[in-house]
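Narrative summary of target 7.
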Amino acid sequence: MSNGSTIRVSIETKKRLNEIGNVNDSYNSVIEKLLDAYDKNKNRSRNQHEITSG
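Modeled conformation, tokenized:
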């Protein structure tokens, strides 16, 4: 990652991110994993809605 940005998170959020990631994961990779999971779940929910509504 060549360019970066600083975000402020609470100590509790930092602890939660640490629990989700592996030992050598950067916060960026943990956040990317969470965003990927969110996108996957969002798409699954959308598809499920189309199946039950269609």
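The first helix runs from residue 11 to 20.
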